[in-house]
Description:
This protein has 497 residues and is mainly α. It has a single domain, classed as Amino acid/polyamine transporter I, CATH 1.20.1740. It is 74% helix and 0% strand. It is globular and about 65 Å long.
Amino acid sequence: MKRETWNSRVGFILAAVGSAIGIGNIWRFPYMAYDNGGGAFLIPYFFALVTAGIPILILEFSMGHKMKGGAPLTFAKLNRKWEWLGWWQALISFIIAVYYVVVISWAIDYIGFSITLGWGTETINFFVGNYLGLTDGPFDFGGFRPLILITAIAAWIINFVVLYSGVKAGIERANKIFMPLLIFIILVILLRGVTLPGASEGLNILFQPDFTKIFDGKVWIAAYGQIFFSLSIAFAIMITYSSYLPKKSDIVNNAFITGFINCGFSILSGIAIFSILGFMMGQSGGELPEKLSGVFLAFATIPEAINQLPAFKNVVGILFFVSLTFAGLSSFISINEAAIAGITEKLYKPKRVVVIWYTVIAMIISSIFTTGAGLYLLDIVDHFVNSFGVVMSGLVEVIIIGWFFNIKILKEHFQPISDFNVGSWWDIAIKFITPLALGITAVMNIVSELKSPYGGYPASALIVFGWSMAICIIILGYLFSRMPWQSEQVFKYYDDE
């Protein structure tokens, strides 16, 4: 049984970049930079990229490429006792997938609203009330929102078609369409934004450096967090994608290219967003809007800014929400592929059969996020899966591989096939810098959570939808690792070249 491979190096890089570039690059990075020193934030940001982001990309690319498997199989090949970590990461991807699809459905719906500016003048009220039908709390579901449910199903169908078609004909081909178009659209929005009156004021706010923030440890933690969350590391994706690389593939260069393209796109998005916000400030008397991050930036503040544009309102709206859709779909496909690869290898079933059953089950579960309580549930689950899922699994990964596995084995694998030598920098980053940064982040997350309940939600909601979920995926990861592999052949047949 032969493992699929990417058709070209470009195809792999576009797929890896497509996974890394998600909706968060567009709505999270600009605010992070603004809130953490403006232009000065780029110093810890790129330092974090070089000392954590790229080293972990090299680590995961080399693990997947050498072991030729998804995350559970890769960790099992490294050491059978570590298989549970692969399942933990695959389950994180599954959880993210079932709520991330709903954000994509919002973006798709807002493409339609852009045509007629259907969100009206009260954009927040429209988003929360007319569109989401937001209820009074997380336990008040309020029924399904038909439009959101339909477009979420459409997103699942797109995902199904891509993954059912395979690595070359599906994932690679889709990203060769999505990524160039996404970058082109962001550039068009950027050009429109910087030509608006007042755009320079917005860019000054974004990039005006506050070097005093450089001495604030929280800014450095924010930089590491942004790099970590935006590169799709520590939740099975990059291990899975790199397992489809041909035998002779430049691991180091691929990691650097993926990391820098992702960060470059984030900066372009920041310029596009803040140039439009600068124009919006000029229209409202020089004050920044309140909602500068997350779903409200994308689905309330930006529509409000679009309403005020002097021309091409509909076009800018359509392009912006198409960019969110493409960014979301490319990441969504990779998230599901990471989970499906683990299941396929464990059960030793044809991948297309797994794709069918996985899609049906995941689509049913995701429907809970299309109810009137969807935004509450999404916010809670997303917070816990990132703060206590991705961060913790990443911390465990670098500790296990850095300290309990001979990383020289991985280094001896990727060095001969890479264009340049990484030297001791990589070892130091994996063993010391990244564990320290993630460890501090994890401790700060726990302390913050214990000090005050996240988002002001009731403790019962945080327990049911947050803490329970975070703990359950660890337990399930362990239980899945105790299940026998349906064929030991998977530990041999992927060494196919």
